[in-house]
Amino acid sequence: MAKSLLAVTLTCPKLNNNNVNKVILPIEHTQTIHSVYLVVHNKDVPCDYSARCSTAIEADGFQVSKEMTLADLKAVADMRAVAFHCAMEPGKIPSTYESGKHPAAAVVNAFQILMDGEKVKIKIKSTCHNRKDELYNDVVKLMVQRNLKMHKSSVADEGEYIVQVITNALWCLTNHHLTINDAAKTYRDAIPVPEMFAQFQGFNDLKGKKLKSQPLQQAECDSHANALVNIITKPIFHSDVHWQQFKEEVECLAKCLVHYKMYLENILKVKHTDTIS
Questions:
Q1: With contact defined as beta carbons under 8 Å apart, do 225 and 261 qualify?
Q2: Going by DSSP bridges, is the β-strand pair 62-63/47-52 parallel, antiparallel, or unpaired?
Q3: What is the pLDDT of residues 224-253, one digit of tens each?
Q4: Which of 45, 76, 245, 263 is the most exposed, fewest CB within 10 Å of its CB?
Q5: Domains in the chain, please, with CATH?
């Protein structure tokens, strides 16, 4: 599980050291802001939550919702610090808060609106020079259908990189779906191509190019599987339910490649054993 260091400041009238406690914690990207608060405070009392890009106390902060995760914050900007300010002393909690009706919950969160407004869809290539570009665009269309969005400041770099890694893996597999799926029916080492990616076969027209199809190699499977595993560790894949579901699908694609590599290794071992005997 991906983690990042987070500077945490707690201001509470019950603290001894000038009512302020400061600490740096390793926080999982899937943790909510409220769960971080509970780590540094032993009582769940009304509190104001804010986040900052800088660890400096005087830096401007943004109001955030306690349900937001660290991945949410990182998807918007490189948030490095959060601050909690207890609104009242423990023991003086109003009944509305105890019943889950904290008045602040009804306040429109300006930062959340900003975050949602700044998220955009990844764009397709305006011009396709070859079939691989067409495959790239079809991957983008799939991601748009899955309602996957990114902050506009990261689409051009991180977004295009994610699409390209997935495209590269699918291009590697595009003429081998039947071979892999047939192997999965017979050998337990192999697993079929995930259903969501079954549409991406036949993109590389080798017959039209008058080229002979080459079998998949172990090194290819390993390289593309590692690249897929690396991208799904990015915070964006934990940012919302749509990205989390897509992460599972990409992970299945990586497993398909890993298992087919294992299948190829075992086939070679069997051939080697037969040769010796």
A1: yes
A2: antiparallel
A3: 999 999 999 988 898 889 999 999 999 999
A4: 245
A5: 3-118 (3.10.20.90), 122-276 (no CATH)
